[in-house]
Design brief:
By secondary structure, the protein is α+β, with helices and mostly antiparallel strands. The chain has one domain: Nuclear Transport Factor 2, Chain: A, CATH 3.10.450.590.
């Protein structure tokens, strides 16, 4: 290869920038999170357990165990018709440390209920059935 050809190849490689990753559409995952949270808000803990990702079901063990956990977490803000939930942050990740390989998204909410403002989050995992909730909590980052 001549020096001239080598420089041309080097310039082409330097000028090439791979296309940016497509923007993640958060509306689908936020909608899935809100539908699941509606189950929790209405006290349908067993149904929320059954419709969660296998990762959450594995960690919780049983629907009864899940119900106890959620019941304790929700003592900070018992659901009521006057409560509101606002999306604060949406972060997509691929294979985060400590999780099975795959695509995940963490959605942070701010909930105002019963005179208190409480941080709440869900982590959804993409599986063949769609985006399902794999983690839930009522603490901030």
């Amino acid at each position: 290869m001549s020096i001239r050809t080598g420089l041309l190849v080097l310039l082409l490689v330097a000028a090439y920038s791979p296309p940016a990753a497509p923007a993640q559409d958060s509306s689908q995952v936020v909608g899935a999170a809100r539908r699941w949270l509606a189950l929790v808000d209405s006290g349908r803990y067993a149904t929320s357990f059954d419709s969660a990702a296998p990762l959450l079901r594995q960690m919780a063990g049983t629907a009864d165990g899940w119900g106890k956990f959620v019941g304790q977490a929700r003592t900070k803000f018992p659901p009521n018709p006057g409560s509101s939930r606002v999306v604060v942050r949406v972060d997509f990740a691929y294979s985060p440390e400590g999780a099975p390989p795959g695509r995940y998204v963490r959605i942070d909410f701010r909930v105002v209920a019963a005179g208190a403002t409480v941080p709440e989050f869900v982590v959804l995992q993409e599986i063949p059935a769609g985006w399902l909730v794999a983690m839930y909590g009522t603490t901030g980052r």
